[in-house]
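Course assignment 3, question 2. Fill in each field.
Student: A.L.
Task: Predict the tertiary structure for the chain below.
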Amino acid sequence: MKKYVFSFRLIISAFLLIMAFLTILYLSFNYVKINLRSNEVDKHFSGDFIQVVDAYKGSELHDLFQTRDGLSRMKTFYDTMKKEFDIYGVDNQDLYFIDSVKNFNYKEEFRADYETELYNPNEVTPPLMSIQLDQNSFNYFDLDECIFSGKTFSREDFDYVVGKEVPIILGYEYSEVATLGSRVQLLYLSQKIDAVVVGILVPNTSIVFNDEIVFLDRKILLPFFELSDSQMCSIVGDFANYLYTQKNWFYIKISETESLQYYINVVDKLNHELNLRYLINGTMTREEINNIGKVIDIHKSILYILGITFVLIVVLAFCFINIWSYIQFKALYRAYFLCGYSKKKIKRKVSVRIFLLTSISLCLSLIIYILLRNTLTIESIIITLIAWGCITFFSVVILSIFISYYNIIDSKK
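Answer field:
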C-alpha cells in the first residue's frame, strides 16, 4: 500500500512543479512579446476607425512651421490620405467669444472652462465649447436630420474663404439666447471670424465616435475647413498651420480586408517622401521601435537565463523527490536482492517506473495547461511546451535514473 501512496505523491509533486514551470515561462515570453509595427502583418485594428496623429514633440512642430514648404508638405499629406482612404475629421476646438454682432448671447455653462480652476467670470474672450466636423463626419452622424430649425451645412460651407462669413449650427440650449441669423465675432485658431447662425439642433443630440459620446446641446458646430491653394496664399499668420495641424489628426475608416500594417506602410511611405512624422495612434515611430528593440533584447537575455535556472531548479527538485523515494524503499530494494533479482533487472524496473511517473505527470500538466490557456498561440505552444518542456523532461529522466542507480548500488551494501 505504501508503494501506491508514494507513487501518487510523486505524480502530484511532479505535476505541480511542471505546471508552475510552464506558467512562469508562458508569462515571461508574453511579457517580452511586444507586437512591433514591423511584424504586425496580419493584425486587424479593433473598432471601425483608426486615428492618424503627429509624432512631433516640444518645439519640433513650430520648427516645421518655420520651414519654407512645411505647410505645403502637411497639406500634401492630408490631400494624399484623403484620396487614398475615407477619412473623417472631428475635433473639439474651443471658439473664443469676442463680440455679439446681432442677437447672440451665451450662458456661463456653455463655456469650456466652466467649473474648472481656469474659470474667470470676467474673462474678456471666454472660450465657448465647440466642435468642428468635416463633411464626411457630418454626413456619417446624419446631423442634417437633427436640425430643429434652420438648415444644415452646404458643400460650399466647408471651403474656407478669407473674409467670408462662417456658418455655425448651435446646440439646442442656445435657442434660449440666440436665434437663426444671429451674428457673432469669434476667435478661431488665432483668426478672427464673423459667424452667422444657420441652424439649431434638436434637443439631446449626441454623436458617438470611436467609442466616445459627445453631447451637443451646449456646443457650437462649425465646418472643419478645407483650404484651396489660392486661399493659402492669401492667409496671413499661422492660421493655416494650426488648421492643418488639427486636420492631420484625422480618422480612417478601416476595411475588414486590410491589416493594420497596410495603413502603417502608407503613412510611413508618405513620411519618407514628405519628410514628416505621422503615425497611427497607438503605434510607434521607427526610432521608438529601435530603442524598445534594444530593451527587449536585454529582457530576452535575462529571461533565457532565468528559464535555464528554473529548469535546473525543477530538475534538482525531481532528483530530491527520487532520492527521498529510494530512501523510503531501501528495504524493498534489499528484499529484491535477497529474492535473487539482478542489479540489471532492478535498474530496468526503476528506470521504467521513473519514466512512466514523469511521463504521466508531464502529460497531465500539458493537457490541463492547454485547456486552461486556450488562448495560447502556436508560437507560444512551440516555445513553451515543446522546447522547454522537452529540456526539463529529459533532464529529469536522465538525472533521476542516474541517481536511482547510485541509490540501488548503495542499497545493496
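Instructor remarks: The chain has a mean pLDDT of 75. The chain has eleven helices and 15 strands.
Grade: pending
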